[in-house]
């Protein structure tokens, strides 16, 4: 084990925490509040933000869409530059927070912000960012990554920098009251797959990393079995904390990481618009089957520690699929609106993005991706 771990985001967790944002944003700063399609106006979050920002100079930018687009975000970049904004406050789910990460980097860059996404430029400076999370799923509220889509080319790519860590993240589970079943299930599946990407690889020697990941997986599995109580505050606050811990960087530090499911899933969303978590749910079980020789030791451990199952790693994959299906997330690619070019589109895009050898051992090739996608299209 040999790594640097650093996470500077202050977490404000619990009821009524939105008002604490004033402790982090200097009154002299000009603030841009960024949000999505308006859910924050239905659950009192917008009003709470407005009250907290009394006495501040602030503007707002709305309309950041799920799978935030470069095209929409560039309109906000212009506002930030023209209005000389000093601080960006993201209020929403992963899309709004990711979009805001793009804004804080692109606003201090003279070139085309897509340079960060195609990897030709690294972020060298960024405006300060704060986050009020309304949908637990991605962990974006306290990590360094952003995933941005370019509509004109059907691309969905990611970039990251320690400069993108939000200064603070407000996690008030009460804001989840307006989330529908689809988004709650998406959040649970996304957080589960994030943990798997950093755990279901090959054995490592750290007892803490495996134990921590197993606790997150067990927690999420428990929530799936307790689905009928998903509207209770204790269910929702558990999802909020579990999803945060799944991707705040710690469980992946110093251990092998996979991320092949995510790389394939992002391309599926770019072409066919599947919700992020649903793209993962169709890919992950088949990827585990195709890569079974590499995965079987950790699958066996997961079976024992998470699902309390006998020594049968193939059954663990079935348990994962069962779990997703039980909360209404299909693992069959044919249940989504795809076309007969899906294998060609996804493998071509992965190739164009340099993703021809992905996974923790770099052995998920384009041939294997084609096999995974063909298996995911169940009759
Ligand atoms: O736009 P609004 O009106 O806010 O509605 C949103 C949106 O329609 C709604 N919503 C959010 N909070 C709500 C609510 N509706 C009712 N009540 C609330 N409290 O939910 C819908 C989906 O929101 P979105 O932000 O798109 O969902 P999510 O948080 O799942 O984010 C997905 C995005 O994050 C990226 C994904 O690729 C995708 O673009 N990811 C980001 C990661 C990261 N930064 O580390 C990692 C992930 O693997 C992922 O790739
Ligand atoms: Zn994800």
From TrEMBL:
Domain of life: Bacteria
SUPFAM superfamilies to which the protein is assigned, alphabetical: Dehydroquinate synthase-like
Keywords, ordered alphabetically: Oxidoreductase
Annotated CDD domains: BDH (cd08187)
A molecular-function term among this protein's GO annotations: metal ion binding
GO CC terms: cytosol
A Pfam family of this chain: Fe-ADH
Record-linked InterPro entries: ADH_Fe/GldA, ADH_Fe_C, BDH-like
Domain Alcohol dehydrogenase iron-type/glycerol dehydrogenase GldA: 8-173
UniProt record similarity statement: Belongs to the iron-containing alcohol dehydrogenase family.
Protein name, as recorded: Iron-containing alcohol dehydrogenase
Native source organism of the sequence: Arcobacter suis CECT 7833
């Amino acid at each position: 084990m040999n790594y640097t771990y650093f996470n500077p985001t202050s977490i404000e967790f619990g009821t009524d925490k939105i008002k604490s944002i004033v402790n982090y944003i200097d009154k002299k700063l000009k603030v841009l509040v960024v949000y999505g399609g308006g859910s924050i106006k239905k659950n009192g979050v917008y009003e709470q933000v407005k009250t907290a920002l009394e006495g501040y100079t602030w503007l707002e930018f709305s309309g950041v869409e799920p799978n935030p687009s470069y095209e929409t975000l560039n309109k906000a970049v212009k506002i930030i530059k023209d209005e000389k904004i000093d601080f960006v406050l993201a209020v929403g789910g992963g899309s709004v927070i990711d979009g805001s990460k793009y804004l804080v980097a692109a606003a201090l860059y003279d070139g085309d912000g897509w340079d960060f996404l195609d990897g030709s430029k690294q972020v060298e400076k960024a405006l300060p960012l704060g986050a009020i999370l309304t949908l637990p799923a991605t962990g974006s509220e306290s990590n360094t990554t952003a995933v941005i889509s370019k509509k004109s080319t059907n691309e969905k790519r990611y970039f990251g920098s320690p400069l993108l860590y939000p200064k603070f993240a407000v996690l008030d589970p009460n804001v989840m009251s307006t989330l529908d079943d689809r988004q709650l299930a998406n959040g649970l599946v996304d957080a589960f797959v994030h943990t798997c990407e950093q755990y279901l690889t090959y054995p490592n020697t750290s007892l803490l990393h495996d134990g921590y990941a197993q606790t997150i997986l067990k927690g999420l599995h428990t929530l799936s079995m307790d689905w009928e109580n998903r509207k209770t505050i204790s269910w929702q606050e558990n999802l909020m904390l579990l999803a945060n811990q799944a991707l705040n960087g710690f469980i992946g530090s110093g251990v092998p990481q996979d991320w092949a499911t995510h790389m394939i899933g992002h391309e599926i969303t770019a072409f066919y618009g599947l919700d992020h978590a649903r793209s993962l749910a169709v890919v992950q079980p088949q990827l585990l089957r195709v890569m079974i020789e590499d995965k079987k030791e950790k699958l066996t451990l997961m079976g024992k520690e998470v699902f309390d199952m006998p020594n049968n790693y193939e059954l663990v994959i079935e348990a994962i699929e069962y779990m997703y299906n039980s909360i209404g997330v299909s693992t069959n690619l044919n249940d989504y609106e795809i076309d007969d070019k899906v294998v060609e589109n996804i493998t071509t895009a992965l190739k164009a993005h340099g993703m021809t050898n992905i996974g923790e051992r770099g052995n998920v090739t384009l041939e294997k991706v084609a096999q995974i996608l063909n298996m995911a299209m169940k009759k």
